[in-house]
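User: Here's a structure from my thesis project, written as C-alpha cells. My advisor, Dr. K., wants to see whether a designed sequence matches the one we expressed. Can you design one independently, without my sequence as a hint?
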C-alpha cells in the first residue's frame, strides 16, 4: 500500500489479458485476502484513512484502483507508428488541434446483440453537441467522434467520423486519438475513463449519477437534472439524498450489500421505483461549458472568489468520502 497505484484483484477476475498487458508497465500483485479485507466496509474505511482509496467503488469482479493515479498509459514507438498511419488514413494532419466528442447511447450494445437497459438514464443525444462542434470548428479545432455509432450527417454536425477505419483498428484508435486530443468531450460512459488514464482534460456532459465517474477530477462536468415523472417538477439535491435504495452484489459496480441515496442511483430500476426522470443538458449549456473547457485546457480558467465559494458550498453538500466532495473538477 506504499505504491502509487493499488490494484486489488481476486482469483476470478476476468481481466487477466488486460492486467497482463498493464503489468508490463507497473507491478501488479494478486492478493485474494487483501481483496476480501478491502471489500468489507471497515476495510474501505481503513484504506481511506491510509489515503490509498478515495472512491469507494468496487467492480464486482474484483478490480480496485486508486482514482488519484492518473496518466497510467503511454504509447510505445510501435503504437505511435500505428496511430500515425491511422491519422493519415483519416487525413488528420499532425498540427491540427483535436477535440474528441462522444455521447452515451445504446448503439454499441445493440450492434453486439446485447440488451443493456440498466443504465439508459445515462443516455444522451449526439445532436446536443451540434452547437459546440460548430463553435469549436470556428475556433480552429477539429472534432473527431469516438466510440461506436451509426453514420450521421456531417454537414449538420461537422465532426469527423472514424467509421471508415477497419473494425480491427477502431478500439485502438479510440485510445490513440484521445492521446492526441487537446481535451475530450464525453457523455456518462466508460469511454470517459480513457482521457483520465491518459492524464488529459475532459468535459463530461449529461453527468449522472453524481460522483460515480472518477474522471471528474480532470476538468468540467455538467450534471443531468432529475424531475418527477408525473408532475415534471425538478427535484432538489436534498430530496434526492433522502431517497434510499439497496444496492446488492448483483449490481454492476458494487461487491457488497449497501444502501445508496438517490444522487447515486446507478440502475434504471431505482429511477423507475421513485418515478424519477432525467433532464438532458441543453445545447446552450454544453456550449458554455465548452467555452470554459478551452480556458481550462490552456490553464487560463480562473474562478472568482464568489465562484470558488459556490463550488465549495456545493461540494460540501456531499459526505466527506464522496467523489463529489473530493473532486478538484468544476461543476
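Assistant: Designed independently from the structure alone:
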Amino acid at each position: 500500500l506504499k505504491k502509487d497505484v493499488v490494484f486489488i484483484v481476486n482469483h476470478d477476475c476476468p481481466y487477466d489479458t488486460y492486467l497482463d498487458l498493464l503489468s508490463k508497465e507497473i507491478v501488479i500483485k494478486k492478493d485474494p485476502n487483501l481483496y476480501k479485507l478491502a471489500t468489507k466496509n471497515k476495510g474501505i474505511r481503513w484504506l481511506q484513512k491510509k489515503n490509498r482509496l478515495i472512491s469507494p467503488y468496487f467492480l464486482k469482479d474484483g478490480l480496485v484502483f486508486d482514482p488519484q493515479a492518473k496518466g497510467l498509459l503511454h504509447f510505445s514507438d510501435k503504437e505511435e507508428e500505428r496511430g500515425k498511419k491511422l491519422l493519415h488514413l483519416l487525413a488528420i494532419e499532425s498540427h491540427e488541434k483535436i477535440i474528441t466528442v462522444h455521447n452515451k447511447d445504446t448503439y454499441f450494445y445493440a450492434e453486439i446483440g446485447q440488451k443493456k437497459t440498466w443504465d439508459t438514464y445515462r443516455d444522451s443525444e449526439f445532436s446536443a453537441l451540434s452547437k459546440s462542434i460548430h463553435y469549436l470548428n470556428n475556433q480552429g479545432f477539429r472534432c473527431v467522434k469516438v466510440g461506436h455509432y451509426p453514420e450521421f450527417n456531417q454537414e449538420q454536425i461537422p465532426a469527423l467520423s472514424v467509421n471508415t477505419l477497419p473494425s480491427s483498428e477502431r478500439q485502438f484508435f479510440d485510445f490513440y486519438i484521445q492521446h492526441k486530443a487537446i481535451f475530450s468531450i464525453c457523455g456518462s460512459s466508460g469511454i470517459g475513463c480513457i482521457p483520465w488514464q491518459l492524464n488529459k482534460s475532459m468535459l463530461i456532459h449529461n453527468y449522472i449519477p453524481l460522483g460515480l465517474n472518477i474522471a471528474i477530477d480532470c476538468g468540467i462536468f455538467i450534471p443531468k437534472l432529475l424531475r418527477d415523472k408525473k408532475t415534471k417538477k425538478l427535484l432538489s439535491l436534498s430530496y434526492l439524498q433522502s431517497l434510499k435504495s439497496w444496492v446488492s452484489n448483483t449490481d454492476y459496480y458494487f461487491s457488497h450489500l449497501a444502501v445508496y441515496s438517490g444522487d447515486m442511483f446507478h440502475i434504471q430500476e431505482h429511477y423507475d421505483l421513485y418515478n424519477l426522470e432525467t433532464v438532458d443538458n441543453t445545447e446552450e449549456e454544453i456550449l458554455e461549458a465548452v467555452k470554459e473547457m478551452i480556458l481550462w485546457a490552456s490553464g487560463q480558467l480562473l474562478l472568482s472568489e464568489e465562484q470558488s465559494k459556490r463550488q465549495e458550498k456545493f461540494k460540501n453538500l456531499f459526505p466527506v468520502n464522496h467523489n463529489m466532495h473530493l473532486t478538484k473538477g468544476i461543476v
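When you compare it with your expressed construct, this may help: Residues 1 and 287 are 42 Å apart (CA to CA).
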